[in-house]
Amino acid sequence: MNNTPILLTPTAIQVIRSLMESGQATSPFLRVGVKGGGCSGMAYMIGFDEQQQDDELFDIAGIPVLMKKAHGMYLLGMEIDYQQEEAAQGFVFRKQ
């Protein structure tokens, strides 16, 4: 496991651990990545997934995090937070 290119905030770590411990996670690995690149640009994604051959594996606060090697340049320096407000809740990606 290498140095991680992303940062998970304490709130994000707490929510991810809660999902994993409650059995809501579909896999023991958290995947972070990008998709798209059309008119609206890149879309960031986060979810649980199985490990693939072209993945890099990182440990962030005891959470096994997967990322496609090709996505590294898009995610380098990214902070992932979890925000909960009246109208919405979810993970938020911020470039640092």
UniProtKB/TrEMBL annotation:
Highest taxon of source: Bacteria
Task: List the GO biological process terms.
Answer: iron-sulfur cluster assembly
MF terms (GO), sorted A to Z: 2 iron, 2 sulfur cluster binding
What cellular-component terms does GO give this entry? cytoplasm
Q: Tell me which residues make up the Core domain.
A: 6-95
Listed InterPro entries? ATAP, ATAP_core_dom, Fe-S_cluster_asmbl/transfer, HesB-like_dom_sf
Q: Which family does it belong to?
A: Belongs to the HesB/IscA family.
Its recorded name reads Iron-sulfur cluster assembly protein
